[in-house]
Amino acid sequence: MADFADGSPVGPLIPQLPDDLSVRCIARVPRSSHSALALVSRSWRSLLRSPLFVALRSDLGIAQPFLCLNVRTPTAQSCWYLLDPADRQNPILLPAPRLPAVGSACAALGPTIFVLGGSLHGVPSTAVQLFDARLRRWSLGPRMSAAREFAAAGALGGRIYVIGGCLPPADAWAEALDPASAAWSIVPSPPHLREKWMHGSAVLSGRVLAVADRGGVVYDPAAELPWGSVPAALDLGWRGRAAVVGGILYSYDYLGKIRGYDLGADEWKQVEGVERELPKFLCGATLANLGGLLCLVWEGKRRWRSGSKEMEIEWAGIKVSKTDGGGLRGSIVWSESVSLAVPKGSSVAHCVAVEL
């Protein structure tokens, strides 16, 4: 008998089939059809919302990537949208978070987005907000030890790390959240690092990278000396936001061209083959790893449509591969325009991929 919700027994998921086999059958249905599956019965609805179901889809290699886009309005309102790569022109407006924090850090682990700190009414906060993309529901998580604004964050080894963004001196300049125990632990850090303020972060080759205004830092939890400086080539070439795909960190340079940083070679290489189809990203472009594709989001040429209150954005999925000569070549898999019903003056704050 299936039992996924409140502990009370319910009927089998599929008559004349054992539940373990039924679950594997249901798990293979595309995520876009899950809203219809939830109407079959209470047990199916409970199954679709269970963490074990999401874990099974991930283990089977059939979890699908979606993009969560956070747009900040001029009145500090936080609007979140879900973008489906299989239905690229129809964004889904998500519920607003409980706390309208400005300057939060953001990281994702599976289907959950962690929104860390940020300023509330002009004061940095210790608040942690969780968004479950399966249930499309916000909740409050365990508070951080230090109030933060514009911190660096990343998911590594099943934990959420947050670095900087707090006033020095702070023993909790860096700390880590274990979602299983819902507890933060302080990550010891050298005092001379604690005055750095972060403006970019990424996870690359088992390390958390954080770019600061005066030299970036790297944290490697497996190293004997976990803290260090990012390589000079990486520090000088990282502009704006970044994303890691296939072990390469992608950003854009001062000429607006997309480049990839290879940690092993310690060098940047321009992504060739996309110059004619993409604009120059001098600022404002957002990058994410969307199921192995380099996903770019930027404001469209007609940013504000005449006579309407819709913001036009464009997003593209790019497959990047290494050439025989060691270079990087990209091919655009798809590119679409999307209209968002937000006030004039809004801007993209976060772009985070989740698995559902």
UniProtKB/TrEMBL annotation:
InterPro entries: F-box-like_dom_sf, F-box/kelch-repeat_ARATH, F-box_dom, Kelch-typ_b-propeller, Kelch_1, Kelch_FKB95. Signal peptide: none annotated. Residues 14-53 form the F-box domain. Gene3D superfamilies: Kelch-type beta propeller (2.120.10.80). Residues 91-338 form the FKB95-like N-terminal Kelch domain. It comes from the Eukaryota. This is F-box/kelch-repeat protein SKIP6. It comes from Elaeis guineensis var. tenera (Oil palm). The gene is LOC105048584.
